[in-house]
Amino acid sequence: MGRLQDSNAVLTHFNEYSERCFVEVSGDFASKTRLLKSMKADLDHIFTKLREMKARLAATYPDAFPNGAMSKTMDQRPDLESPLD
């Protein structure tokens, strides 16, 4: 019975400690998550603009790029939204 009470006391102490740590870190985690989402939106916007510029350049100066060169470089970023196979 004594070991059970000791185990319960240790678990209670650990749960209280974990709760305090979670409260301390949850605010930082939420702000960093918002920052990352904002950065992703900014980068998506930038890459969209770059793709549009590349397409306009290829349409305006078709002789400047060898055949197929633009299609290879249009977007080489991996899709982070889709799960990996």
From TrEMBL:
Domain of life, per lineage: Eukaryota
UniProt record similarity statement: Belongs to the KXD1 family.
Protein's UniProt name: KxDL domain-containing protein
Transmembrane segments: none
The KxDL domain, residue ranges: 2-65
Pfam families the UniProt entry points to: KxDL
